Amino acid sequence: MIFAHRVGQFSVAIAAAVFVAFASSASAQEISESHLKAARAAVDAINATDFYDDILPNAAAALKRDLIQKNPDLTSDITSIVDSKALEMAGRRSDLEREAAMAYAKLLSEEDLTAIANFYNSPAGINLLKEGPIVTREVDKAAQIWQNGVARDLAEAVANEMQTKIGSPAVGPGLSSTITPGTPAPAPAPAEGTSN
Known about the structure:
By secondary structure, this protein is mainly α. It has helices spanning 2-23, 33-45, 55-70, 75-89, 93-107, 110-121, 123-166.
């Protein structure tokens, strides 16, 4: 999920960059049909818009919930009408796909888009998309452990250096006079009005 979310965020970032890059230009470069086709293939291959799959169902569910709360006696009609109208709007998903493809086409060459689609449609690319969320979780765990170790070792190194230079442990923001080499820095106190 995290990996898919990050791919989705990448898509949003590309779309935002395209908007900024071309907002001041009245005549954006014309995208050929083959270039757009390559972009659509890349968008499909990397599941760039999958992150947005729940937008319409969530909007329909929220609308039903609100309407039913205000009119509980019309639950059956509300459910039927909202579901029907949501199904009618499902075809508008192609608008998002087209905009995503345009965003990619404006930033990446047709050749690059073809290479991206080819890779992500290959066994290695499919496996990367499938296993990516697990890899991301493992990297996040490793980064947290690394961060904790670096912070501890930095505090220890500073305490050692301060002891050597001035003969007493470091005292300052985030450091206590009780820090001695080999002792991890104390956790910061919770902000006022919060608790740990």
